[in-house]
Design brief:
Radius of gyration: 24 Å
Oligomer: single chain
Number of domains: 1
CATH architecture: Roll
Order of helices and strands: HEEEEHH
């Protein structure tokens, strides 16, 4: 019985490495709030205009360890004046292993910012309310859709670039 168990253990099965994502740390990397027209802006009336900008940066810290920084910038204007500008860089350290390059890129571009966004949203909300303005809650963001659009644009740029490169090579 021991021999058969040993024989079974001695024959390793071909196993694919399991894909795994481990959230190691979430932290606020940078925070900024400006109300350049205060206190006069509190006396003004009118329709506010909000502009939201999202960006992210990925840095490889070690093998299978990545820092993802989601930057959320919200600018509120009233007429020609900036009522406030709130910016948060919400970061996380993620251990990610067992993914091929394409799927790793997708995880970094979709899963990671989805984890970070609620923290950034709360910080933005607290900054705005603490700055004396009406409470504001950012709506959810579909990072999968943003990533899909980035892939479409990248494919279109490559398609446009391929004929031009071929044409210049023929002309040379």
């Amino acid at each position: 019985m021991t021999d058969s168990a040993a024989n079974g253990a001695a024959q390793p099965q071909a196993q694919q490495p399991q894909a795994q994502i481990v959230l190691q740390k979430i932290y606020t990397k940078d925070v900024s709030f400006e109300a350049p027209a205060a206190p006069q802006i509190f006396q003004e009336e009118g329709q506010t205009n909000l502009q939201l900008n999202l960006s992210q940066r990925v840095t490889t810290l070690a093998e299978n360890v990545y820092e993802v920084v989601l930057t959320v910038t919200l600018t509120c204007t009233l007429g020609e004046k900036t009522a406030y500008l709130a910016e948060v860089q919400q970061a996380g350290i993620f251990g990610i292993a067992g993914f091929d390059a394409r799927n790793l890129e997708a995880v970094l571009a979709t899963y990671c910012p989805n984890v970070l966004f609620p923290y950034a949203r709360q910080t933005i909300s607290d900054l705005i309310q603490g700055g004396g303005f009406a409470p504001f809650l950012l709506q959810p963001v579909n990072f999968e859709q943003i990533y899909a659009e980035q892939l479409r644009r990248r494919a279109a740029q490559q398609a446009e670039g391929a004929p031009a490169a071929g044409a210049s090579a023929e002309g040379a």
